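re: that chain from earlier
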Amino acid sequence: MFWYIFAGMRGGPTRIRIVSLILERPYNMNQIGKDLGLDYKTVQHHIKVLLENRVINSEEKKYGTQYFPSVFLEQHINIFKEIKDKLKEKTTIQRKETEK
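^ sequence. v structure.
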């Protein structure tokens, strides 16, 4: 499932960036958008995908809701890190080929 969410879908790299932030500390949607330079609707869409797939959790369902890593993510953090590293490596290789 992680591979599909983060590597198999077009928004995977953005979701990786969001989860990486949330792993540092809880964030709300406005903070995520500001830190990553994304508009609110984009953040809202990705948060919805991450919540539906139990990657992140929230305590409240209102404006300013804080999001944090789920137990499921914490149990599978090595898979997340592997995907993140592989996508970073792939992006680096593509960038080098473009520069040739």
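Residues 2-99 form a domain with the Arc Repressor Mutant, subunit A fold (CATH 1.10.10.10).
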